Amino acid sequence: MTGLRHWLKEGAAQRWLAGAALLAALALVVGLVVVVVTVSAGFFWPRPVLELQLRDGSVVLGEEWGREDDPTEAGSQRVRMKVGNRDVFGLDFRWVRGAEVAARRTPAAAWLLERREYGNFYGFPQALRSPTGSVAVTDPSFQVHLDHALAETRRLVQEEEALLRRASRLHEPVARLRLRVAAAERAGRDAAALQAELEAATRREQTAAAPLLAELAELRGRAAAFSLLMRTADGSERELAVSSLLRVVPANRMTTGAKLALYLSRWVEFVSGEPRESNTEGGIFPAIFGTALMVLLMTLVVVPFGVVTALYLNEYAGENAFTNAVRLALANLAGVPSIVFGAFGLAFFVYTVGGGVDRLFFSDTLPTPTFGTGGILWAALTLALLTVPVVVVATEEGLQSVPQAVRDGARALGATRWQTVRRVVLPYATPGILTGTILAVARAAGEVAPLMLTGVVKLAPALAVDTTPPFLHLERKFMHLGFHIYDVGFQSPNIEAAKPSVYATVLVLLGLVVVLNLAAITLRNRLRRRLRSSAV
Amino acid sequence: MSPLPTRRLARARRLDRLAALCITGGGALILLSVGFLLVFLLVECLPLLSTGKGTPEGSVGVAFVPLVASEDEYRETVAVLGRDGILHLVRRDGSSEARTLEGVAPPLEEATVDSSGRLVALRDGRGSVQVWSVRLRPSWKGQGRGLELSLKPVLVAPPLKAGPILAVAGSDGSAGVLVATPTGALLLRTGSGPSPVALDALSPAVAGTLTSSLAEAWLASEGELLLFEVGGEAEVASLVARAPLAHRPTALGLVLGEVTCLVGDGAGVVTAWQAVEGPMAGLRILDRSATFPGQGAIRRLLPSQRDKTFLALRADRAELFHLTTRRRLFELPAFPSRVVWASLSPRRDGAFAVTATGQVHRWSLAIAHPEVSFSTLFLPVRYEGFTTPELVWQSTGGSSSFETKLSLVPLIVGTFKGALYALLFSAPIALAAALYVSQFAPRRLRLVTKPMVELMAALPSVVVGFLAALLFAPLIQRHIVAVLASLVTVPVAVVAGAALFSALPRTLRRRLPPAGELLLVGAAVAAAVTLTFALERAVTRLCFSGDFQAWLANSVGVTYDQRNAVVVGFALGVAVIPVIFTLAEDAFSNVPASLISASLALGATRWQAARTVAIPAASPGLFAAVMIGLGRAVGETMIVLMATGNTPLLSLSPFNGMRTMSACIAVELPEAPYGGTLYRVLILTALLLFAVTFAINTVAVMVSNRLRRRFGRLAA
């Protein structure tokens, strides 16, 4: 007994327990990152198209999306099949119980079609119809014809989109006028002149749009001439417009190289494309763009603000009650929950400042708000307030690394304090400022809660930068990677189908934040080495 | 060397002064912005304190003897029915217009209006009871807004022998009027044939009121309150519940929603009653839910059509009360004497009173947030339909008569519940890990752990929350027994491993490389976890008859939510561990090495040196670390939003979800109308959150400052 007590006193057990705690903490980080990477990276890899022959005679065609223990029957498993063909079956997924399956095949002829609408289609190609005639799948030139049809319809769709963009630009003056008329009527002002202007604008739009519409109809007609005849698993035939197809994947006949190419092209589409089907498919380019622009705007505010504060604390002020108060304020800024900044951003920036701007400059469209609603500017300012402490702390570390001798030398040569700071201290402290900036950017890229109050949306119809003057639209709402994860993962109507998209977004965001942080850590380590050497 | 031109020198000096000014200003700006943030949030929620006020808007008058009156939605015209059977439309500017009620024989004996002010019940000179629809509809003609009066009779009953008219309710198509009789009351209705429905109370009714569906009628006799239900196949009125009254009732009124009946009595007290399920199933009893004391007999009770506010008219005063808060809001100032009728405007933004001489007095009312008071925010409140006072957060309901329930307590409890479970999980791990890294581990390990922990701190909380909710919550649900068991088995296995290792011969132990110890610990942990999960099925079958959740529900009576406090504790832990770890490690490394060296030199083991020197010396810093970790856990939003299920439950069970203050702000503030009650209450929540974290951070900063001063001396 005394031996045990003695052993406990010596503390080997405590040591081991503490070690276990450290391992647990490290395992959490590594585990999370590994889980995200393994789960996310696999979704875009092409899977074989399975054909399950069921005991009741029916056939299920699709991709296997995981299996689990069958809750209705102990000891057996069930398979989640992505059967696609949402326009036919209504749902993308179905469970197939292990006991139901009579045979499993991977038919070489089965195709996966990725479509612009209604998700994936699984089936067997039959024939291609084009203006020049019909080509059966058995025809050796089928593939050539299909490639041609895909390229042709893709070109037509692009032309169509360009036309639609032109048409919507034509509509802009009318939409603006309509807002002004409505506002004038609500305010009880005389709207007759505006009304007349609106009618004239509408007529102008109609005359200008007429040839566009005719061209559009012609383009659509030409695109509709290409169609692909597919046979579904249950034997029925469906004709799909080639223009509705994004990719044609002969999933069971692909070489590893082709699979890799498809995998990469899916990632490229994901990163550079627009979202489709209420964000469950397609790309996340607007979210990446929105995140980047918001962070850039924030940087423009937070870096000068943070650097000035750090300069004040480190170069200008001594240790006194006032600087202590500033430090306390900074510590609190760092500790106050981000949602409080969000609430402040909404109440102050959006409603008070934005509302004031609207009353001053955009009163003709009130009560439809312009700046008096969440927007990218307000989100950036809110996050700037949130990330000031990060910049200050890192910049201070950079400033402290500047040897006092260097400052003294500059002053001894007759430089004023500002000249010393600008020519000597700041260049020396650049790595610190850079570290702070990177950390602030990483923090802002991952922050979601304040944005939910200050202007993030699930789907922004227009980017905040475009070709209509004034080119940068600070009042517009924007999409954000972090909010995209929350929205698609939790508010989506079809969560299972959205899984690849949302996990890939997680990977992109995590990758971004990890890379930024690693960069900051590397920079700071370099700075610290210098700090150590300069201290010697 | 030539001297610098003086102009350049002067410019440099000017620039220097300007820079100093700007930089000092920038430093002050930080302080200002924190102060401004605090003050601005405070100012935004200050209006919650005000009970509102009424401002007299003067009076206009026409000479006639008024009976009843109602006002239009825009508060421009008051329609006053005079004893002469003429409806006078009295406008703000004093002009008026008269419209005769065709077929009504003057002089009218009595009249009353329904709660919406659109139905007027009267008894004319021949004793005929009639109901008229009086509507002031706004109409837009060109630039201005006009009012159109539509006036039509909807019910004309032949003269009958009965007491005074008690109440009128319903719509144009189906109106009902309640008339007192010696044995109770009579309900006359449109379109239900000739026979009126008798409400049998065995004594004459003094006051009464009707729901607008005409399905329920409340009557008050000398000493009793009675609730009747009208309907069924036979279209009869049946007495549902009754309750004795302390004083002689003088007026009844139904609060918006028609669940609560207000009873005003001759002693000046207003009581609120509702029918609740009694002890016997299917039988309802009348229950007094609130009392509003006051002086002077109540003449009329006039509930608002917008919210749970009501106006109590006494002999020479009119006061506003709110049902939810049980508060007297204020009294209408400069109230005239000899008031015949008074009421609230349809939008509850004004009030008017008509005196016996035909003067129409108006007030504008500014009552922004009557449903909020300190007690509704923080104390249990007995809401409509509740039998006991409760703490509930339910900010929106299905109908306009919904009673908002804005108790912050469930949110506060949820916040601290989540933070507490997070700290239970993360504080031991983080502190022990920091201890290990700073006291036991080889120096090189720090170079690895530091960046990894920083990376952990940088993980976006939305990612952590997402994984916790969609990946780990189902996993934990499936393996809850193993997860909970691991909390015991892993430490036991580690201690056992340590014992085994100590039993090895000293020479063998010496040969272990410095990092090897950690590998052995890892092996022990891995073995324990594997074994626990392998045995899970067997243990579950043995102890919980195969299904832990069913066992929990049946034997303990606790339901299991998939997204619960265990999941949140774990996920929040991921966010909190790096915070605590970093600060604790700093605290440990601030302990002067000389102290520890001295202890080791006296023969202490590393653990003994840590226990007796490092931990006590660093304890204020460790405390500060945990405090700041708590602050982080309290304010974290996305993780709790995603991993809690977000239901404002008041339950401390680890297997239930919750809603935290932060998540509530994130979800509800974007939808809350600017300046509305919900908006201000949520801003108040943000302010509370700010205050809590401010206090926590300030304490932590002060503690660590003191620590630094103490060891600063020691090191010197």
Layout of helices and strands:
The complex is a heterodimer of chains A (536) and B (716).
Chain A: H1 2-10, H2 12-42, E1 50-54, E2 59-69, E3 77-82, H3 86-89, E4 93-97, E5 101-105, E6 111-115, E7 120-130, E8 133-136, H4 142-187, H5 192-224, E9 227-231, E10 237-241, E11 245-249, H6 256-272, E12 275-276, E13 281-282, H7 285-316, H8 321-335, H9 338-361, H10 376-400, H11 404-412, H12 417-446, H13 449-454, H14 481-491, H15 495-535
Antiparallel strand pairs in A: 1-2, 1-5, 2-3, 3-4, 6-7, 6-11, 7-8, 7-9, 9-10, 12-13
Chain B: H1 6-45, E1 53-61, E2 66-71, E3 77-82, E4 86-91, E5 96-100, E6 110-113, E7 119-123, E8 129-141, E9 144-156, E10 165-170, E11 175-181, E12 184-189, E13 197-200, E14 205-210, E15 216-221, E16 224-231, E17 236-244, E18 249-254, E19 260-265, E20 270-277, E21 284-292, E22 298-303, E23 309-314, E24 318-322, E25 327-331, E26 339-344, E27 350-355, E28 359-366, H2 374-378, E29 393-394, E30 405-406, H3 409-440, H4 443-458, H5 461-478, H6 480-503, H7 506-510, H8 516-543, H9 548-556, H10 565-590, H11 593-601, H12 606-635, H13 638-643, H14 661-668, H15 677-715
Antiparallel strand pairs in B: 1-28, 2-3, 3-4, 4-5, 6-7, 7-8, 8-9, 10-11, 11-12, 12-13, 14-15, 15-16, 16-17, 18-19, 19-20, 20-21, 22-23, 23-24, 24-25, 26-27, 27-28, 29-30
Helix pairs in contact in B: 1-15, 3-10, 3-12, 4-10, 5-10, 6-8, 10-12, 11-12, 12-15, 14-15
CA-based gyration radius of chain A: 31 Å
Report the largest inter-chain contact: A-B, 100 and 109 residues
CATH topology of the largest domain in chain A: MetI-like fold
The residue fraction in helices of chain A comes out at 55-70%
The CATH topology annotation of the largest domain in chain B reads as Methylamine Dehydrogenase, Chain H
> DSSP helix count of chain B?
15
**Total number of β-strand segments of chain B?**
30
Low-pLDDT windows of residues of chain A: none
Low confidence ranges of chain B: none
Integer count of domains of chain B: 2
